[in-house]
Amino acid sequence: MNTNERLTKLNDQLNDRYVPANEYENVITYPKLITLTTTLRCNYRCWMCYQEDFTGDLDWRVVEKIRHVLPSVKTFQLFGGEPLLYNRFEELCDLAGENFCEIEVITNGSPLTESKRRALLENNASIVKISLEAATQATYDSIRGGDLEQVLGNLEKFAEERARMGQANPTFQINFVAMERNIRELPALVERAASIGVDKLLVLYVNAFNREDIARESLFFHQELSDENMIKAVEAGRRHGLEVTIPDLFSTNTAQVEDACMDSTCHSPWKNCIINLNGDVLFCCGRTGGPIGNLLEQDFDDMWYGDKITRFRKLVNTSGQPDCCNTCRVKGRNIRDIGYHIRSKAVADKLMAEFGVAIGN
Questions:
Q1: Could you give the CA distance from residue 34 to residue 79 in angstroms, rounded to a whole number?
Q2: What does the pLDDT look like over 280-296, one tens digit per residue?
Q3: Distances in whole angstroms, Cα of residue 290 to Cα of each of 121, 281, 321, 324
Q4: What pLDDT, in 10s, does the model give residues 144-166?
Q5: CA-CA-CA-CA torsion for 224, 142, 127, 14, nearest 10 degrees?
Q6: Tell me, what DSSP letter sits at residue 39?
Q7: Which residues are listed as membrane-spanning (predicted)?
Q8: In sequence order, which residues have a C-beta less than 8 Å from that of residue 291 and are 6 or more positions away?
């Protein structure tokens, strides 16, 4: 075991001990996961995307400010926009590889060129997540507007290159955001994905927040249709050797859903670090009071061990935790609650009145 691997394992073990102990005063670790927003540019304009600004690339000075942290970090997640469009993407992969970080990337799959695939294959990429929500071009075009066969072709080439190199990684995972317009195609996509070397398929319910057009597509209003095709997808995965992970079914007993899926312990203030394009540093994707600092203005260590995050570590997982923790979507996954699917109560109430009699049909 080399020095970097020892540092990573030590960091992991200490972080894992901080969470159940809720320790905050003498934290000496770095985060286990760093999520880095590389660019806001994207070659797609997906129908359900909430991104408004599509300009700007990460300043490399931000990367330099976390270089000393990477030897302790287990996972380096590259995010966007479309992260493969970042003009220094290959350099980021090389940097992660030098520090034995596992690379995760979330992509629409269309820019998976030969050079990008090689950079991931040669630098300890652990998983490539491809956002893909259709088995037909017509549905794909209505959601993402790209070329479905190009994306599937890129994935097939990637799988072939992985096999030629004799590697098990990276794992290829399709992320499928399920809604009324595409749920019928899920079983067929499982079969197609298995045929080209995809390893996993993860299904997520579309989240409408406050957009009524998305809310109308929510499977909350098409529960039997949703459950039927989720089950078919799992069965297809078993037949074809592809791991399919689905969310809880609507037909599941409510009490069982709550018991099985409510995780009351938050790990983020110790384990997670999110770095935005402008250098802002956060430890949570929720509303925890904004960033703990900015890497173009401060040192990483001053923020990670600073007063703001220390106070949060003291309060989280206690009766005095902030209100945003009590309504956290990451911790609470009761899918039979319409608030999980549609954040706006006004939109939810309107559609409940319109669709109410059709729920379960």
A1: 10
A2: 999 987 777 789 999 99
A3: 35, 9, 16, 12
A4: 999 999 999 999 999 999 999 99
A5: -70
A6: B
A7: none
A8: 276, 280, 281, 282
